[in-house]
Every structure is written in C-alpha cells, then in structure tokens.
Amino acid sequence: MATPKSGAAAALALGLLAATACGGGPGGSGDDSMHVWMYQDSLVVVQEAAVERFNQDSEVDAVIDQVPGDSYQDKVRTVMKSRNRPDVFFNWGGGSIRPYVDADLLMPLDDLMDGDPEFAESFIPSVLDAGKIDGVQYGIPLRGTQPVLVFYNKDVFADAAAEPPETWEDVLELVDTFSDEGITPFALGGADTWTEQMWLQYLVDRIGGPEVFQRIQEGDAEGWRDPAVLKAAETVEDLVDRGAFGKNFASVSFTEGAASALLSEGKAAMHLMGSWEYSTHLDQAPEFAKDSLGYAAFPPMPEGEGDPANVVGNPTNYFSVTSDSAHTDAAAEFLKETSTDAYVKDMVENGEVPTTTDAEDALDDAPTPDFAAFQYEMVRDAPNFQLSWDQALPPETATPMADEIGKLFNGQSTPEQFVDALAELR
C-alpha cells in the first residue's frame, strides 16, 4: 500500500533525480557488459560462480564489480546520483533502497515474479517480502539468512542446573539466578548501539506484533507512540535495573569480540545476537562452539500480540535492477540464478543458510548441519521476518534513532522520553 513520502525522503528523491554528475562507478565504463555491483567479502565467490554460469548461455556478458565493504553504501549513494549506475546491485532492502524507489531509479520486479511463478515460489515468503517497498517487489534474495537468536553457554547453564528460557518469566528468573552466581546474565556489546536495538526489535514485535513497526517503516512517526513501544522501553529499563547486562555493558564492544568472549569464557550466560555469532565462535573459540554453544528462539511476552515464531534480524541481502539499465531483460534472467541448485549448493558450502524453500536437504553439507537446520527451520516457519530497524529505515531516521536507543539503555532517558524523541523523528 502506497503511503505519502516523508519530507526527508521526498527531498532526497528530488536530489537523486536532479543530480547529473558523471563518473564514480565501474558501471559507467562505456562497454556493453552488464555490471553487477557486489559488497566485497569472502562470500562473493558464490556470485562469481553464478556469473560464469550465466555468461555461458547469455548474449550479454555479466561482470561483477566488487566494492569495498566499509565504503559500499556511500559509493552506492554516490553512483546512484550519477549517469553511471550499475545494472544490478547488492543491497539490504528496506530503507537502503527506498530513496531510489522514490526517485524511480529501480525496476519493479512484479512482472518477473508473475511471469515465472516457479521462481517466485522458490523463496521463503517472509524473506521475499522484505525485498518489497510499499508492496512492490524490488529485491531478489541473493545471500543467506541472518536471524537474531539467543545463544547460551551450556556449561554455565549446567553448573546452575538451569534450562534455556522458553517464557519471559524464565528470562527474569535466569537473570536473578546468574546474577546471584556472579555471572552476567546477558552479554551485551553496548559500545555498538545496534546490539541494543535487537532487544527492542524483538520486544516490540512480541508485545505488539509486526504491524507496530510496519506503520513506522511506512513513514508514520506517530507509530512510535504505540503502547507496545512504550512497554518495550519499560521492559528494557527493567532489564537494565535488574542487572541483566551487568554494570559495564556500555563499554563492551561487539565488533572487537569482547561480548562474544564473555559468553565463550563463561563470564556471561547468554547473548542475544545474529546467527553470525556461531561463525564468530567457530573462528575464535572452536572447542566452545563445538561442545558448549547452545541456541534458542527469543521467548514470547505475557499477553503479547506478536506470534512467538516471528523473527528479527537481516532476512538476507538483495539484488535490485536499475530502471534505466540497457540490460533489463538480461538482468531479469540473471536474477533467476539465485534459485538454482548450483547457487544453493555454493552457498551452503560457504557456510550460508539459503532462503529458498527446497534447501533443507542441502544443509547436510553445511559446515555445522545441526545449527544450519535450526536456523533454516526458524526462518522458514516464521510468519514475519522483520528487517533490522537501522536497515529498514532511511539513514536520516536510523542514525538519531540509534542515539536514542543508547540513551535509553544507559539511563539517560526514561521510556516516556524515549518514545517522545522517536516520535519527533521525520
């Protein structure tokens, strides 16, 4: 359903349309190739193999242009203002592409999906939906899924004769149990605000359902005043006051590995984190990952309206096609590579958990089959998969939102002040 543009989004859209600067991207090299922009990392080998297969039968040659990850989004924003836009590009869906949709720079993919129902039905619906803007498909899943879940230290739990939480009452009891044992109940890398955001994402969803944030994502800032947001903020305040995250979480860094180390070293009992936490431990504490790392879903909230099977995190990354590409037909065919058996096989071998509906059998070849199966089933069965708030919202909203989340967790604002501040964001 279409919604009115916010002032900031409209201004950005006009700016994009008005910009005519040349240069800035390999897509503007003047050749006849179809340029595919990719975030540069170790997983790009999957897309490189897909390009090789595609080029064997295509009259148009596809070329991958790898862009360094630390500057990827800035370079995309720059090149999308120029005449040298790539034909196809990697993105996060949601707020990361909304400005380009508002500026009519992306090709709607509904005709592609309608014309090939088998392709459209090959993806997990909740993941495919996260590639839509106002109900229109603009993104096709290209990478593995990354839900947020509760990781826990089995040894610490065994020593305390405790079980992983299944209800919110269990969470509160575990907070008290581990606090009494001198163990931080939940590791939290509060130096990186996005780790705190995960708590609010789940709490708002479990308390009020996905409709609460959907309203906000569609541009209605008054959605922050929904009672579910206030209740979630009050729950955070209660957790902090109970000592759920210890006393020094604001100085703990996730990106430097400190939060994960608290879990593997037994100094923390649990850690709410994205599925990449498993890979982090495989790399940094392989014996712990193999023998002592447990995982569970985020529990339901008392009288909550959200389905306990809902998940939050990063559904996946997406390919989008620029509307003025000279190779839109070839691009549409290239996107279909993402659902092939060969593509899925490559993903699994590289440690990713695919988003296709028939990937379950392929997971036997995953580096950690049990965890891959748990993660896959969790996402497959989720009625809704909420994209991380800082990716779902445009930067002009996401950045100040992160600041307010930090203030809430650090006790610098009350739940009521938190809600009021967010409702003022436009």
UniProtKB/TrEMBL annotation:
Keyword line: Signal
PROSITE patterns tied to this protein: PROKAR_LIPOPROTEIN
Domain of life according to the entry: Bacteria
Pfam families given in the database record: SBP_bac_1 (PF01547)
Signal peptide boundaries: 1-23
InterPro entries assigned: Bact_solute-bd_prot1, SBP
Protein name from the UniProt record: Xylobiose transport system substrate-binding protein
